[in-house]
Amino acid sequence: MAELIAQGDQLSHRWRRTLPEGMPIILGRAGQWAVPWDAHISRRHAELRWDGGRLVATQLPDAANPLFFRGKQCSELALAPGEHFVIGETSFLLTVQRADVAADAPMPVQQQSFSPQYLKEIPFRNPDHRIEVLSRLPEVISGATDDNELCIRLVGMLLAGVPRTETAAVVTAAGPPRPPAREPRARQAGGAAAAGVRVLHWDQRRVAQGDFRPSQRLILEALRKRQSILHVWEGAEPDSPQPFTARGNYDWAFCTPLRSAGGDDWALYLAGRFQKDLPGLPGSSDQTDLREDVKFTELVATIVSSLLEMRRLQQRQSALSQFFSPVVMNTLSVEDPHLVLAPRETEVSVLFCDLRGFSRESERSAGDLLDLLGRVSKALGVMTYQILNEGGVVGDFQGDAAMGFWGWPITTADDVVKTCRAALGIRAEFESAAREAGGPLAGFNAGVGIATGPAVAGKIGTVDQVKVTVFGPVVNLASRLEGMTKVLNAPILLDEATARAVREQVPRQLARVRRIARVCPFGMETGVEVSELLPPVDQYPALSDEHLAMCETALDAFLQRDWPRAYDLLRRMPTEDRVSDFLTVYIAQHNRTAPPGWNGMIRLAGK
Question: Are the CB atoms for 80 and 67 separated by under 8 Å?
Answer without folding.
Answer: no
